[in-house]
Design brief:
heterodimer; A: 247 residues; mainly alpha; 2 domains; three-stranded antiparallel sheet; 10 helices; 5 strands; elongated; B: 330 residues; 0% strand
Chain lengths: 247, 330
C-alpha cells in the first residue's frame, strides 16, 4: 500500500496477511478470555463470601457486567490506548492504520471492532482472503488497514562499510561512455567494492569479469585505452566517477 | 553524492527521529514538549525528503528501505484524528446524540416501520391461524398471566439486569454491524423482535390479560424498543450507503456512513443499561399496574423530549436585523 505524505513523498507499507492477523486475533482472544474468567471467578468468590443473598446477587451481576464489558470493549480500548497495536498485534508486529496513513481515530476503531461481530462468523476471513490488502469488513467500514511494521531495520546494519579502494588515488581521467551506466551498475560496483575478505586472486578475477561486462555496457571500442587498464583499477575509477557525477 | 556521504551527512537527524519515535511508542506524542513536538515535525519532513532523494539516487538499497520504514512509523504519530476525550462525553449526550438522531430520521422511521411490520405480521398470524397459536406462544406464559404477574425474584434482580443488559446491547450492536451486509441481519432482527412481541400480544389479547401483559412490557419496553429501532436505523444507514453510494465509491460511502452512524449506535446501546435496569427491577415488581404504566410513559416522554428537543440551535436574531436593514431607505 502506498500513502502520500503532505510533502508529496509516497511511503510504502506492507499490508499484513491473513495468517499473521489470525494468530494475532487468537492471542488477543486468549487474553480477553482470561480477563473475563478472572472477573467471573472473582465475582463468584465474592458472592460465596457475601453475607446476604442480595449481596451475592450484586457481586455476580457486577462480574457478569464486567465480563461483558471486556467482551465488547477489549479490542476498542486496546487499539485506542496502544495506537492500533493490541497485545496480539504487537506480538506479531502488526498495527492498525487509517487508509490515509494516519493513525485511526476513535470512531474508526469503534466501527472496525463493532463490525468484528459480523466478521467473526467467518465472513471476515473469506473477504480478507480475496481482498488485495487483506482487509475485512470492519476495515472496509472503518477505513482502516492492518500493516506490518519493520522495526528491526537499524541504521547501523544499513550503513554499508566503506568501499575498499586500493589501486587508484583518485577518480582518474573521465571514461568515455560512462553515461550509459545507471543505478543498477552503480549498485553492482558498490556491492563488489564493499565486499570484505576477498583474496587477491579472487578479487582480480571478479574484477576482470565485472570490467569486461561494464566495458561492453559502455560500448567502448576494442581499441579503447580503458580496456588496457588493470580491471581492478578500471572498476575502482568507474565507481568513484559514478559516485561523484552531478545529478 | 556517494551513498556513504549521503548517510554520513544525515544520519544524526535520522537517529534523532528514531529515538523520538521510540519514545512515542505508546502511539502518541503526548509526552513531548512544545519544542520537541516542533522538532519532531522538522525531523520527519527532513527524513521524508531524504527518502525522496534516496529513492532517486540509491534505489534498491537498504538505506531507502530503512528511511521508508522510519517515515512509515513516524507518519501516523503526527497525522491523526481528534483524540477521544472523556470530558467530551456529557456534551455528546446533551447535543451530539440527539442531533445525530434527528439527522438520521428517515432511517429511524424505516427501522420503526420494520419493527411495526413484524409486530402486525405476528399479531395477524396468531389471530388468523388459531391452530398455530400453541406453536407460536409458549403455554407457560398464560399460566403466569393467570397468576397476575410474573413473580419477580427480588434478590436475583441484579443478575437478571446484567444478563438482560448484555443481551440487549449485543442485539443493538449486531443491528449496527449487520449494516455491512447491506442491512439484511439488521432488518431480520427488527422484524423478529416485532414478530415476537406481536404474537405474544395477540395471544394475550385473546386471553384477556392485556393490562397485566402491557404493565410487564411498557416500563422498560419504551426505551428498549426505541433503542433497538435507533440501532437498527444505523444499520440501515450503512446498508443504504452500500446500495446507493451516490457519487462515492461503495467502500468510501460505507466508511463515511459508518463514521456518522457509530456514535449514534453506541450512544443508543448505552441507554439499554437504563432499560435493562427497569426490566429487572420495575417490570416484574409488585407495583400496581397503573404505576408501572406511568413509569413507562414517563421514561418515554423523557427519552423523546431529549431526542427531539435537545441540542437545537437557538433562534437566530440577526435575520430580523437583516430584514430591517433591507427595508431601510437607501
Amino acid at each position: 500500500m502506498r500513502v502520500g505524505t503532505a510533502d508529496n513523498v509516497s511511503l510504502g507499507y506492507t499490508t499484513a496477511g491473513v495468517g499473521s492477523r489470525t494468530v494475532a486475533q487468537l492471542i488477543d482472544n486468549l487474553l480477553a478470555g482470561l480477563l473475563m474468567l478472572i472477573a467471573l471467578a472473582g465475582g463468584l468468590a465474592v458472592a460465596r463470601a457475601a453475607a446476604s443473598a442480595q449481596g451475592a446477587a450484586w457481586a455476580v451481576g457486577a462480574a457478569v457486567a464486567f465480563a461483558f464489558l471486556v467482551y465488547v470493549a477489549y479490542f476498542f480500548v486496546a487499539e485506542l490506548v496502544s495506537g492500533g497495536r493490541t497485545p496480539g498485534k504487537s506480538a506479531m508486529g502488526l498495527r492498525v492504520l487509517g487508509v490515509d496513513g494516519g493513525a485511526p481515530d476513535a470512531a474508526a476503531i469503534a466501527v472496525r471492532n463493532l463490525v468484528r461481530l459480523v466478521d467473526v462468523t467467518g465472513i471476515g476471513l473469506f473477504i480478507m482472503f480475496f481482498h488485495p490488502q487483506s482487509r475485512r469488513l470492519g476495515d472496509l467500514a472503518g477505513g482502516t488497514v492492518v500493516v506490518r511494521e519493520r522495526a528491526t531495520l537499524r541504521l547501523a546494519s544499513v550503513a554499508a562499510p566503506p568501499p575498499i579502494i586500493v589501486r587508484t588515488p583518485d577518480a582518474g581521467p573521465a571514461v568515455e561512455g560512462i553515461e550509459r551506466l545507471g543505478a543498477a551498475e552503480e549498485n553492482a560496483l558498490r556491492a563488489f567494492l564493499t565486499r570484505q575478505g576477498l583474496t587477491q586472486d579472487t578479487r582480480a578475477r571478479l574484477a576482470a569479469q565485472l570490467a569486461a561486462r561494464l566495458c561492453d555496457r559502455m560500448q567502448l571500442p576494442p581499441s579503447a585505452p580503458e580496456r588496457m587498464w588493470p580491471p581492478e583499477l578500471l572498476v575502482e575509477r568507474l565507481y568513484l566517477q559514478l559516485e561523484n557525477r552531478p545529478r | 553524492m556517494s551513498l556513504e556521504h549521503f548517510i554520513a551527512q544525515r544520519q544524526a537527524r535520522w537517529t534523532e527521529l528514531e529515538a523520538a519515535v521510540r519514545r512515542a511508542r505508546r502511539g502518541r506524542l503526548r509526552g513531548l514538549g512544545a519544542d520537541d513536538m516542533q522538532r519532531f515535525g522538522v525531523l520527519l519532513r527532513h527524513a521524508s525528503s531524504d527518502l525522496a532523494i534516496a529513492r532517486r539516487d540509491h534505489p534498491d538499497t537498504e538505506v531507502t528501505e530503512y528511511l521508508n520504514a522510519l517515515c512509515a512509523r513516524a507518519h501516523p504519530l503526527l497525522y491523526r484524528g481528534e483524540p477521544l476525550r472523556i470530558g467530551a462525553l456529557p456534551r455528546f449526550y446533551a447535543t451530539g446524540l440527539p442531533r445525530a438522531f434527528r439527522a438520521a430520521w428517515p432511517y429511524m422511521l424505516a427501522g420503526l416501520a420494520l419493527l411495526a411490520l413484524g409486530f402486525i405480521a405476528g399479531w395477524l398470524a396468531v389471530d388468523l391461524r388459531p391452530d398455530l397459536r400453541a406453536a407460536l406462544v409458549p403455554a407457560s406464559l398464560f399460566d403466569q398471566m393467570a397468576r397476575g404477574h410474573i413473580q419477580g425474584n427480588v434478590p436475583d434482580a441484579p443478575i437478571a439486569a446484567s444478563f438482560i443488559i448484555q443481551n440487549n446491547i449485543r442485539v443493538a450492536l449486531i443491528c449496527f454491524a449487520g449494516g455491512v451486509l447491506i442491512g439484511v441481519p439488521t432488518a431480520l432482527v427488527l422484524l423478529s423482535n416485532g414478530w415476537m412481541l406481536g404474537t405474544v400480544a395477540a395471544a394475550v389479547h385473546i386471553g384477556g390479560y392485556d393490562l397485566q401483559f402491557w404493565s410487564l412490557i411498557v416500563p422498560h419496553g419504551v426505551i428498549e424498543l426505541s433503542d433497538i429501532v435507533i440501532a437498527g436505523g444505523t444499520g440501515l444507514m450503512l446498508g443504504d450507503a452500500i446500495l446507493r453510494p451516490g457519487s462515492l465509491r461503495r467502500g468510501d460511502a460505507l466508511a463515511a456512513a459508518a463514521r456518522r452512524a457509530v456514535s449514534l449506535a453506541t450512544g443508543a446501546a448505552t441507554l439499554l443499561v437504563v432499560a435493562g435496569t427497569l426490566e429487572a427491577f420495575v417490570s416484574p415488581s409488585g407495583l400496581p399496574e397503573a404505576a408501572k404504566l406511568a413509569i413507562g410513559a414517563c421514561a418515554g416522554a423523557l427519552l423523546y423530549t431529549w431526542l427531539i428537543a435537545s441540542g437545537r440551535a437557538p433562534a437566530r436574531r440577526h435575520t430580523l436585523a437583516f430584514d430591517g436593514a433591507q427595508s431601510a431607505p437607501a
